[in-house]
Design brief:
The complex is a heterodimer. Chain A is of the alpha+beta class. Chain A folds into 3 domains: about 200 residues, Aldehyde oxidase/xanthine dehydrogenase, molybdopterin binding domain (Aldehyde Oxidoreductase, domain 4, 2-Layer Sandwich), CATH 3.30.365.10; about 180 residues, Aldehyde oxidase/xanthine dehydrogenase, molybdopterin binding domain (Aldehyde Oxidoreductase, domain 4, 2-Layer Sandwich), CATH 3.30.365.10; about 190 residues, Aldehyde Oxidoreductase, domain 4. Chain A has 16 helices and 27 strands. In chain A, a hairpin with a 2-residue loop joins strand 15 and strand 16. In chain A, helix 3 packs across helix 4 and helix 12 runs parallel beside helix 16. Chain A is globular and about 80 Å long. Chain B is α+β, with helices and mostly antiparallel strands. In chain B, helix 2 crosses helix 5. Chain B is built from 5 helices and 5 strands. Chain B has 2 domains: about 80 residues, Beta-grasp domain (Ubiquitin-like (UB roll)); about 60 residues, [2Fe-2S]-binding domain (DNA polymerase, domain 1, Orthogonal Bundle), CATH 1.10.150.120. A 5-stranded mixed beta sheet of chain B has the order 2-1-5-3-4, with helices on both faces. Classes of the chains: A alpha+beta, B alpha+beta. Chains A and B meet through helix 6 and helix 15 of A and helix 1, helix 2, helix 3, helix 4 and helix 5 of B.
Chain lengths: ~725, ~150
């Protein structure tokens, strides 16, 4: 077996479990026929930890490796509580079984792998430790209290005896799992809080790691696809004979458009695919096929959408007939806030107003969308780096009628996810093509297909106003937004902790005929840009330092105040800037964590250079400090790349970007120095890591540019060009 | 047409259209999948291999042009039990995230160290133009410096 490809079929685990001796509290899933409906979540003690007689330890994890390191982090938590030797631990993808469902599903997202399973992971490990100690105590005929477990062995100090976990595993597996095992107190942690080396890194440095695109199966055909480039258009014709003349081409298959009833934000365009012995033949066949397309009656135009959104936010009251969402800070009474805001604007000495815009963004994962499918009778197998394995079985049921339990999901390494691999479009294509071809099929999207058929980060226009009273303080803030549906996430206003006397917020939603979806940090990205840019504008309008102003308005949020202090200190906020430098700050709560960042920019030869990003981060408890820093570096660079150059536009229904030339992303030479400083709040609920360090970077950058040039950046992307100081900003 | 060359020190003979990119011969015909497909236009560097010791974006190399050449892929950057100093440095600095671009990064970095054994930051910036979407750039810099000291 390859070191990376993990089989998530149930049979493999049952067989593996039987062979390995110790499966913690494993309960056999009920036979399919006895299950109420599909994969109902059932309360089970879990099946996460296997210890072989030779001590080899496998921890099954229920998150997909997208590069975020949470598989290792989860294993680290279990290993801590179980007293495992980290060097003996290997990781395997958990099967798609209720024992591994997280809040009723099996998916990877929301920075939740550890944050939402923290207590469970600890209990898994702690129960194992207890059972292993019990097994040793029985073997030696001594009280369990005298048996200490650590480093993969149980030790009886009084007699100097010790037994490795492998020797105890079979007996331990027969012990009843304790319901409430004692957890290791923080001060005794040996692994949590330490930079344990990630277990997935070695095979990623020598070519061994297997991604979806690397899958091989007997008789496998490779498909190159052309999805209708004019969104909502239809396939008019193609030259099948020419495609079939290309050596290696086997078949041309046409796929009708389809939209899933649950994933309405993923309208799959009409598609034609060329199946061949390998990818190059398939792509040459597709070139020879020359598909022609007919545009829809009203092709989508993103510039027109933004124009409409601007009108929506500028209207005196939200336009009627649109879906309208209102949001309030936690603890606020909406009616009282509205009344206070109305009075404050009526009596305002000054009104500060600004409009902001966030464009559509593609994910542009390094591995374009890929998937492998194989039908065997009425059973379907899928190999891919999916972020949503349980949904994958359900969507296959809706699309093909195959029973969900007859869909086996194999999870490969994923060449980046960032939210994109929640969506099963490539997997659906692979299954449909495998059905049509009567052979297993691997779908590989070209880069232009990947850029032009993404589920983009939703676009938004915001218009924020603040009433400044005669006393010179902000009395009320009004936040209006115009947004697109069908895809939406919460607006996050409930997380705002600025204590302005009144805050009213609303958004209107217009249906748009485009695919939008989750993009790293989802709605926190745009919201942080809007709010933290505006807070900066308020600080300047009031003649206050941006850090000092924020701190003054965060009296109810001491964690945020402390984090701002850390980032100010570490970035040298209060020290004089070098000539030609500018600094900007931003703060954001996301995924139950907080991040504060200071970005330092310079103007070098008329070109904007991002020199340094200082980040202070508080996720409550840090499991692996080195990996949290790595996620900070990654989130900052992903967010910076988008803020600088990321923009998808539609004209005449077509996406105008296609590859890394027209959709440029940040490269090594442009990467600033990044420092991530970790601050822990042990009493706080543990927070997520993969996303929350992304949102502050765009507003901190925009605020730094203002500091340097006096120009406000209110529309993303910034593009690293700076107009002459004093010029009007877009 | 039949094309013969050396891949990772071993002779290879493939039957391919002359214009087939080396990338797809390596991946689909020779089953060496460590070399990745990222953009198909030479923009991202995920497919970087060495041809006669020089870094090449294999999606832009016609297979006919490597007839008789020495081609090295990530699978042969180090040897079993004896990783290349960059591979060791990559682990020490915990560089990889999703890992998909890393084969190309390592091959590009190895070529850089061949030319410039002790590169400055500026030389690393100029020498490594591959794309990483996970944001491993700061660690790549550190790992190259670490490897250049060994």
């Amino acid at each position: 077996m390859t070191p990376s490809l993990t089989d998530t079929s149930r049979r493999a685990v049952l067989q593996g479990g039987a062979a390995l001796g110790f499966v913690l509290g494993f309960r056999l899933p009920a036979p399919a026929a006895e299950r109420a409906e599909g994969f109902e979540s059932v309360p089970v003690v879990n099946a996460w930890l296997h210890i072989a007689p030779d001590g080899a330890t496998t921890i099954y994890v229920n998150s997909t490796d997208l590069g975020q390191g949470s598989q290792s982090g989860m294993a680290q938590v279990i290993a801590e509580e179980a007293g495992l030797d980290w060097k003996a631990v290997r990781i395997a993808q958990a099967p798609l079984e209720p024992a591994f469902f997280k809040h009723g599903t099996y998916s990877t997202g929301g920075s939740s792998a550890i944050a939402s399973q923290w207590d469970d992971l600890r209990k898994v490990g702690a129960a194992a430790r207890q059972m292993l100690r019990q097994a040793a105590a029985e073997r030696w005929g001594v009280p369990i209290a005298q048996c200490e477990a650590q480093g993969g062995a149980v030790i009886h100090a009084a007699s100097g005896r010790s037994l490795g976990y492998g020797a105890l595993a079979v007996r331990a597996g027969q012990c009843a799992p304790p319901a409430d095992p004692p957890l290791t107190p923080r001060e005794k942690w040996r692994l949590i809080g330490r930079p344990a080396p990630r277990l997935d890194i070695p095979p990623k440095g020598d070519g061994r790691a297997v991604y979806g695109i690397d899958m091989k199966l007997p008789g496998l055909l490779t498909a190159a696809v052309a999805q209708c480039p004019i969104h909502g258009g239809t396939l008019q014709g193609f030259d099948e004979a020419a495609a079939l003349q290309v050596p290696g081409v086997r078949k041309v298959v046409r796929l009708a458009p389809w939209t899933d009833s649950e994933y309405v934000n993923m309208p799959m365009q009409e598609t034609v695919a060329v199946l061949a012995d390998g990818y190059w033949a398939a792509s040459q066949g597709l070139a020879a096929l020359k598909p022609q397309w007919t545009p829809p009656a009203a092709p989508f135009d993103s510039a027109a959408m933004f124009q409409q959104f601007r009108q929506d936010v500028r209207a005196e009251t939200p336009p009627p007939g649109l879906k309208l969402a209102r949001a309030v800070r936690t603890g606020d009474d909406p009616a009282a806030q509205e009344a206070k805001a109305k009075a404050a604007f009526a009596a305002a000495a000054k009104v500060v107003e600004a409009e902001y815009e966030c464009p559509l963004l593609a994910h542009a994962t390094m591995e374009p969308m890929t998937a492998v499918a194989r039908w065997t009778g009425d059973r379907l197998e899928i190999w891919s780096g999916s972020q949503a394995q349980l949904d994958l079985t359900k969507i296959m049921n809706r699309r093909f009628g195959v029973a969900p339990e007859k869909v086996t999901v194999h999870t490969t390494y994923a060449g980046g996810g960032f939210g994109r691999r929640f969506y099963a479009d490539a997997q659906i294509q692979a299954a449909a093509l495998a059905q049509a071809a009567g052979a297993p099929v691997k779908v590989v999207w070209s880069r232009p297909e990947d850029i032009q058929h993404d589920l983009y980060r939703p676009p938004a226009v915001a218009r924020f106003r603040a009433a400044i009273g005669k006393s010179g303080a902000v009395e009320a803030v009004e936040m209006r937004q115009a947004r697109a549906v069908p895809f939406e996430f919460g607006l996050r206003y409930e997380r705002l902790t600025y204590d302005w006397p009144a805050l009213v917020a609303s958004a209107t939603f217009r249906a748009q005929p485009i695919a939008t979806g989750a993009w790293r940090a989802v709605e926190d990205g745009p919201q942080a840009f809007f709010v933290e840019s505006f807070v900066d504008e308020l600080a300047h309008a009031l003649g206050q330092d941006p850090v000092a102003y924020r701190r003054s308005r965060l009296a109810k949020d001491p964690r945020a105040q402390r984090l701002l202090e850390v980032v100010a200190e570490r970035s040298g906020w209060r020290t004089p800037k070098a000539p030609g430098r500018g600094r900007g700050v931003a703060l954001w709560h996301a995924n139950r964590s907080l991040a504060a960042q200071v970005v330092e920019v310079a103007q070098e030869g008329g070109v904007l250079k991002v020199k340094r990003v200082t980040c202070a981060f508080d996720c409550g408890t840090v499991v692996n400090p080195d990996n949290v820093r790595a996620q900070g570096e990654g989130a900052i660079l992903y967010g910076l790349s988008a803020a600088l150059t990321g923009e998808i536009t539609f004209k005449d229904g077509r996406v105008q970007q296609a590859n890394f030339d027209s959709y440029p992303v940040i490269r090594l030479a442009e990467a600033p120095e990044i420092e991530v400083h970790l601050v822990e709040t042990p009493d706080a609920v543990i927070g997520g890591v993969g996303e929350p360090m992304l949102p502050p970077v765009a507003p901190a950058l925009a605020n730094a540019i203002f500091d340097l040039t006096g120009q406000r950046i209110r529309r993303l992307p910034i593009r690293p060009r700076l107009a002459a100081p004093g010029a009007k900003t877009a | 047409m039949a094309i013969a060359f050396t891949i990772n020190g071993k002779p290879a003979q493939v039957e391919a259209e002359p214009a087939t990119p080396l990338l797809w011969v390596i991946r689909d015909d020779l089953s060496l999948t460590g070399t990745k497909f990222g953009c198909g236009t030479g923009l991202c560097g995920a497919c970087t291999v060495h041809v006669n010791g020089q870094p090449r974006r294999s999606c832009q190399v016609r297979v006919e042009s490597v007839a008789g050449a020495q081609v090295t892929t990530i699978e042969a950057l180090g040897e079993p039990g004896r990783p290349h100093p960059l591979q060791a440095a990559w682990i020490a600095e915990q560089v990889a995230q999703c890992g998909y671009c890393q084969s190309g990064m390592l091959m590009a970095a190895a070529a850089l160290l061949q030319r410039t054994p002790q590169p400055t930051d500026a030389e690393i910036d100029a020498g490594l133009t591959n794309i990483c979407r996970c944001g491993t750039y700061p660690r790549i810099r550190r790992a190259i410096h670490r490897a250049s000291r060994t």
